Amino acid sequence: MPEPLMSFTPHGLQIVQVDNEHAIGIWGEFMLAVWRRKTELAAVQHLRHKLGDLGARYPSGTATISVIEQTAVPPDNDARKELSAVLTTPRLQCSSLVYEGTGFQAATVRGVVTAITLLRTHPVPHVIHASVREGVQWSLKTLGKSDSGKLAADLERVIEELRGKITSASDARR
Question: Which domains are seen in the chain, by residue range?
């Protein structure tokens, strides 16, 4: 497990944690995560802890946007339980899950996750999307943020910047 980072990028993204499996960051009231391969329990616990801290800074509410890349494997039982517990974090207003990809497999995964989500009661709105753009737009709307497009574009850019940190971490280890 990597040492947690606390650095900022030029676009104001606070890098919380990065390794070759995932990246976690904060941008304003948004807790952002990109999961490339394995979703480790310790990483989810760290995300949940930082989300609690974020809620203390943003009493009007926070949001999560998690991007699951096509290379990710399903989390184990413990990590899955912790991911579910993230939804109970005080001041969390919504959770957006982006499962990228096209084709039958990606649509099937999104369909299964959506069905499970509908069968289970969540304390906050929790929706799965096919793209980062969809997830960002839904999150902004759910938080009541009016946007002329600039805020959404900035948030999309920051998520892509966070994704790039995983590649940088992987390259640095070679």
Answer: 7-172 (3.90.190)
